[in-house]
Structure formats: structure tokens, C-alpha cells
Automatic annotation (TrEMBL):
Family of the protein in this entry: Belongs to the DNA photolyase family.
InterPro entries, per the entry: Crypto/Photolyase_FAD-like_sf (IPR036134), Crypto/Photolyase_N_sf (IPR036155), Cryptochr/Photolyase_FAD-bd (IPR005101), Cryptochrome/DNA_photolyase_1 (IPR002081), DNA_photolyase_1_CS_C (IPR018394), DNA_photolyase_N (IPR006050), Rossmann-like_a/b/a_fold (IPR014729)
Identification of the protein by name: Deoxyribodipyrimidine photo-lyase
Native species: Microbacterium aquimaris
Keywords recorded for this protein, A-Z: Chromophore, FAD, Flavoprotein, Lyase
PANTHER family per the UniProt record, alphabetical: CRYPTOCHROME, CRYPTOCHROME CIRCADIAN CLOCK 5 ISOFORM X1
Amino acid sequence: MGTPSLVWFRDDLRLADNPALRAAIERGEPVIGVYILDEESAGVRPLGGAARWWLHHSLAELRDRFIDRGSVLVLRRGAAGRVIRDLCDETGAGAVFWNRRYGGPEREIDADLKSALRDAGVEVASFAANVLFEPWTVTTGAGSHYSVYTPFWKACQEQPAPRKPLPEPRTIPGRAQPPASDELDDWGLLPTRPDWAGGLRERWEPGEQAARRRLRDFLDEDLGSYDAARDEPAAGATSLLSPRLRWGELSPHTVWHDTLEHAGTGRHAASAHGFLSEVGWREFAWHTLYHFPQLAEKNLRAEYDAFPWPSPERADLDAWQQGRTGFRMVDAGMRELWSSGYMHNRVRMITASFLIKNLLIDWRRGEEWFWDTLVDADAASNPFNWQWVAGSGADAAPFFRVFNPELQADKFDKTGRYVREWAPEYADDTDGEPAEPMVDLKQTRRRALDAFDVVKRSR
């Protein structure tokens, strides 16, 4: 029996287009998959509740697919560096492979582990798998990173085309006596007291196979209307692929090439271009996080440190979280989020703007709530998008751009279908009583702009 290869899975819960898995199989020795629930390593952000729910189900499918192909996925809990070293000792592993991560704490963990394993004589290799363009490969003419999306995405498109996705392995060579594994149910990832995940179960089916079906359905049925209807939350034109990309059930390379092959130069080409530009926005978020690891805690634009956030009223934050603001689009969006772990992107902008600019609550409080309640919240896109709305981030919307939630509802939910689904008391044909508006939009807009004057004076 040879020295086995460990494949350390992180945010890449798939068999197809998994370069680390492919390298392990090609090494020609038994392969052991590993997933570590790391809530101990310094700087690693604990997962939110909705993310933990998704992780449980995605891991369950990945574990079963490993078994079907002849190997095992070992589950362990603890500080990742220590767990991997222990597994190498237990199994006599001769190699460890993983796909790269781009957050600051995660890169430190991986670099330290790589060094320790090599010193111990273990082969180690990492691979590009979860972004199309690794953050250090896209630079300005001066050699620095980008802070504006349009030139960033143009520079990406001038790079060599993203590689073709790798096929899924038919078999994974296993080991006669695999190491012990934790029981997934013992990790307590699913809510029980209370079980608030009914809406998530109704809306989502985590796992690689469901992710592939969703991509295929989107390309076949929705891509053609994406460009025209993507801002309408009731239109059903969005891809719903964000949690699939967040957990790596699909690789961005698969999404990229399948979209281009499906669209070709035909009538869906414009929609395909618009959709892939959103994939580019995800790339820009990871590019920004790589160069600014404190994205969830600190303003990217330092002048916003002077913003005079008042002490938030707990009741105001509660009303926003619970969808009781008295503004139909905000309330509908926040209830969709709580029920399903998801919110349409246009509505995310509306609800975020309302919290930051009408309630004058620090963007970090909203980012924390989305981190806990979104199934697709990742370390890059979640804080990146909150800072974009707040005006403090990369290529940000200016602070004085304050969404009027009522005008947004009139424009993007003209028939009221979205509001009727999630906040039916605002519809004319129901007996429900909507909440009274908690603030005056004009007055709070003026208050926000007055506060922004402090930032302008600090420059």
C-alpha cells in the first residue's frame, strides 16, 4: 500500500473541475478527501446560521459521492493546520493538495501549513480553482491593484481566457482502512431549537448535482430574459447560482464556459455578456479582499472613518431585521431573507441603503446580519457589496446616492407581485395592516447628507 494523498476541501465542494482532486488522482495513490470545520484558527470568521445549514447538506452529498466512487470524505473539527498534520501522521500521507483561498487569515494558515508539511517531507501543491483570475495576476500599468470595476474587468478580459473546466472523475481510488471521521450530524450545523429552516428547505437543494441542474435550467430558460429583467425581483430572471459559487458546488470556469457555449453569437449574446459581467463583479470582490483583508471590519476608503455614526437604536435595527419598517420593498426583502436565506440583488441594495442612509446605522451591522442569514454570504462579496452601498468601498456608489424605497418599488415591482408574496399586507386586496413608516424619507435623507459633510470636510 502506497502513501495516500489527502485532498483538503474548503469552499470547493465538488468533484467536477477540481484541480486538487485531479492532481491527487493522477499521483496514483489512494485518495482521502478531508473537510475541516475550523472554528478555532485565529482570524477565521465563524459561519452564519444559514451558511451552516447549507454546508451540512452540501457535505452530505459530497460524502455520498465520494463513497459512490470508491473513497471517503473524512470530517474533522478543529484548527485546520493541526488537523491536517495529525491526519498525515495517522495515514502516512505522502501528499496534500488543496485549491487556493484568498482571505488574509486563510492564506496565513495555508502558507504555514505548506511550509510545515514540506519540512516534514510531504509533497504539497495548491491550485487555482475558485476564481477566474487570481488577484495578483491582474494589475494596473503601475503594478498596483484595481479600485474601479470597469478597468479591472477590461484588464481581466485582456488576460488569457479562463481555462476549460476539468471533467468529473469516474472513480476515486480509496484506501482499505480509511481514518476515522466525525459524524456530520454531531456537528450541529442544522437548527433545531427552534428549527427555522423550513423556508430554506422549501427553496433550496444544496449539492453539486442540483447546482449543475440549476445552471442548465438557467441557461435554457432564463438567460434570454436576464439582461432585460434581472432588476425585477418577481421576474425570476436571475441565475440563483450565488450559493453554488459560494460553496464551490460549481466552479466559475464551468459557469463561464457553459454560458459562452450556450449563448454563442445568437440572440442570447447580450444577456450572456451582462450575466458574465456579474461574475466579473464577484471576481472584483475577491480581488479587493485579497489586497484589503480587513474588508468586513474597516472602511476601504479611510476618509469614511470620520463618518459620525450615531449610537443605533436597538428598536430600529430590530424593525429592519424583521421587516417592520413600514416601507413595502424593504419589508418584503427582509422577510424573503429570513424565510429563504436569499434576497434579490436589487432588493439587497434597497434594504442596505435604507439601513445605512435612512436609519443611519453603520454598514457593519447590516453586513453582520446578512452574514448570518444569507446562504450565499462569502468573505469577499458580502462586505464588498455593503461597502459599495455605504460609499466607503471600491468603485462605490457615492454616499449621496440614497435609494428611495417607494420609488424603487414603483419602478421594479410595478405589478406588486414581489411585495404581495413577501409582505402581503401592503397589497390593496388584503385585510392586513402595514406598519406605519418608521422614518420620514426626506428628513432622513437630509440627515444622512449632513453627516456625509463631515467626511467631505475630513479629506
